[in-house]
């Protein structure tokens, strides 16, 4: 529907009033192309059924309606001796409404086309000859669209009819106003006629006065007579009469103009009546069109019902055809088999015939030649035996000669290989006695030379590979020239830029945390632990981190700033970034320090800022810019959680076109509770196209169309997506566990996998832990009792009963961790005769206050202590001292606490969820093999379920001392290292790289 409105001002002015405002309204109704009815498809081999209805075209109607606006003004008085009469000038505004309506019905849009139905031809046996199911489905869909369009056309027609009826009522009101004004005009005409008669009388009187003045000007009596009749002097009388005559003439002219205007208005009234009649006709036409539409709709509904029946019948026929085709295929196969059997039989018959003929011929000579034949056979057998003996003798002699020659050659080859291996071993044997910090320092030094343009990228690549392999030559070269200046060291290293073989993958982790320098939760442990495990497997692993002002700088070795500046786009301009390098736990790390006025990473904390979305989207882009600037060609870029989830879309949208295209992207979400959502407009700050990415199949948040979700974007744009345990990977596929992303995860399930995290067994090792009072191991657990006494003395707990069980809890006090069960555990442990120690704090104010009250309540209690802070040294001692450790989490993606507890011989009491379900197995569960049972579990997150597990643990500890000792030793022997998890990641990496290389070659 199209409506055109235009305003115009008339040039005509009416007496006593300004120009009236006239509106011209042109209303046209055009059906949009998208609402035209579509023809149903028809097949040339099918019979057509035409159910199209007759079309009607409505003529364009144009209706002009003038709406007068009353504008009455008073005119001047005609005579001072007569009464004042008020005049009202009629000013009307013309409004022209042109309605051009084109009612598109079922047949108006496609008057010349036929809508075909599908019919099924049958042969005499009732079997279908051909069925075009696709055409039938298209017919049904188009019929449904046509019904929908018919309903819309009917609704529009009713709305148009209502508008016309409203306009008709307005016109009736305007006609009434015009009739009232017409009556007023007639009254004014009557008054004007009377005034005209009065003027004519005055003109006669004036003529008489002139005659009398000319005839008797000298007569004073006549003058007096005239003065008596007209009480004015001669001159005054004539002047006043002249003025009155002029005014009457003007009034007459005005009255004539009013009469003319009134006539034109009457003409308009007649035209208005004609328009009303036209509108009445138009209304009747619309009503008939509506009735026609109703009948067509009813016919369409009947046709749709017929289509449904045909669809069902077609489905049955199609099934029968498929069955017949199956039978035909079987029959064809059987016929082929029968033909082959007949052919074989024929061949056999021919062979039998030939044999029979041969037997008949042989029977003739059988009797005469039987003895001769036997003699010949004996002689042939003897000759054959002699030949075989001679042949075996020759073969044995030849084999001895060949064996001798092979032995001589093998000895010579072995001797040559030993010489070559000895020579190569002296040059290429890896040096394993140097720490990882040494090789990481060499690697960072070479990368610094490359970024500072002191060596070429090709030379840097070759030198990195030598360091990667722990080549003894480069180690000796560095040790021999490390006291020299940098130029001489570079010259020495460039001597080794010969071809080298690549030992493994190049993996770069981009993360917001790394233990121990910048750690808030388990993410930091994963980055460090997984990186070290992959490094031990021979892969080159590098880490990219923000340079926080609150890092533990004492854990960074050889930290220095590179003499290079990396520029990165943000908020419409380029910002410089300073690059630092250092080694952490033997891993090479790049620290990015933005030169941004917002001081993104100089806030005194890692997270919790109002602009976290901007801070980490900025960091993600700079990290990729660093890799591009350093001309690195990694095989895997591994990003973690929402803070670096931006890496995936940034890599594919912006950096692959720039040449950083060698890597596959791996994304690990450690907790789907945190997804990094923000208004879509904020995505443009880091250079991504919000309009392009704010779509349901890309980064648009599943619960809000105007927000983007960075975790969803990483799932969509990554080649590998992992989470931190197999059970959690299944939980997040549900609506409750996925926190709104379950649909996205399920749609990308082929690249989604759960891998259980490991722990750093070097950092968490009771046999070498310097935080403990006494070190101990699985083979000697007596030191655990001494650490228990040390913790009691440190916290002021009672040491009167050595066998009193100590229950520990080390956690963040947040709802996820089951704080209501932790609170209950304190009281229930004391009721059962145990001791309880809690280490942790809460970012939630009311939870922190609640546990502060509990701490104050037990401040002087001899069996309970609450330490509401994080203390690294104390956590190690609690792990070693506790007999049991509780983990009653509501949900737990992986959890490292239970693994560390078992490493230190503290038996876990855990709820079966997430990674806890994958690592803790109940000692009383007969469905689990005995060698895997390692703790106590419960299912429901309530006090009853927790009590059951806790009481069973107390029963084992108090009444089954030997069984408890065996359980402690078994738990301490379980391998929770990163080796197994790293192998799974290694397999995922290799498969992704292999697929990429295969696709590249193809």
Automatic annotation (TrEMBL):
Superkingdom of the source species: Eukaryota
HAMAP family: Glycogen_synth
Alphabetic keyword roster: Coiled coil, Glycosyltransferase, Starch biosynthesis, Transferase, Transit peptide
Protein name: starch synthase
Region annotated Disordered, chain positions: 66-94
GO biological-process terms attached to the record: starch biosynthetic process
Biased segments, Polar residues type: 72-94
EC code(s) of this entry: 2.4.1.21
Signal peptide: none
PANTHER family, per database record: PTHR46083, STARCH SYNTHASE 4, CHLOROPLASTIC_AMYLOPLASTIC-RELATED
Pathway field: Glycan biosynthesis; starch biosynthesis
A GO molecular function held by the record: alpha-1,4-glucan glucosyltransferase (UDP-glucose donor) activity
Reactions this protein catalyses: [(1->4)-alpha-D-glucosyl](n) + ADP-alpha-D-glucose = [(1->4)-alpha-D-glucosyl](n+1) + ADP + H(+)
InterPro entries: GS/SS, Starch_synth_cat_dom
Family per record: Belongs to the glycosyltransferase 1 family. Bacterial/plant glycogen synthase subfamily.
Coiled-coil positions: 133-272, 314-428
Limits of the Starch synthase catalytic domain: 506-746
